[in-house]
Write a structure and sequence with these properties.
This protein starts with a helix and ends in a 29-residue tail after the last helix. The protein has one domain. The protein is 45% helix and 0% strand. The model has no long low-confidence stretch (mean pLDDT 78). It has helices at 5-18, 22-36. By secondary structure, the protein is mainly alpha-helical.
């Protein structure tokens, strides 16, 4: 159940569609997009930041109804 990413994505999107707070909607939409994005490789050295992390595909972000 913890690995049910599709259900989590749908839950974030549904919550984003229900909220009237723009910052909260933005946060929830971004979280859904991050979960939907393909995984990236972990940094190779301690403390290093990942480079070239792909941005979420805009087609995955549903507009508010």
């Amino acid at each position: 159940m913890a690995d049910d990413f599709q259900a989590a994505i749908e839950s974030y999107r549904a919550a984003a569609n229900r909220t009237t707070s723009l910052p909260e909607r933005h946060y929830l939409t971004i979280r859904a997009a991050q979960l939907a994005a393909p995984p990236t490789e972990a940094p190779t050295s301690r403390g290093a930041r990942a480079r070239n992390v792909p941005r979420a595909d805009p087609s995955l972000i549903r507009p508010r109804a």
